[in-house]
Amino acid sequence: KIGPKGLKKKIDIEYHNLCKLYKRK
Fold first, then answer.
1. Is 2 left (phi over 0), alpha (psi -120 to 50) or beta?
2. Farthest CA pair distance, the chain
3. In this structure, what DSSP letter does residue 12 have?
4. Total structural domains in the chain?
């Protein structure tokens, strides 16, 4: 099970990746 900290880190990483993909256009 992932704790709140782990979940936030996972979301932050996915959000960061989305930002990179979006800026690449």
1. beta
2. 36
3. H
4. 1
What is the 8-class DSSP label of residue 1? -
Phi, psi of 2 (to 5 degrees): -95, 130
Domain interval for residue 17 = 1-25
Q: What gap in Å lies between CA 10 and CA 1, rounded to an integer?
A: 13
pLDDT in tens, 1-25: 678 899 999 999 999 999 999 987 6
**Amino acid in position 2:** I
| pLDDT score for 19 | 93
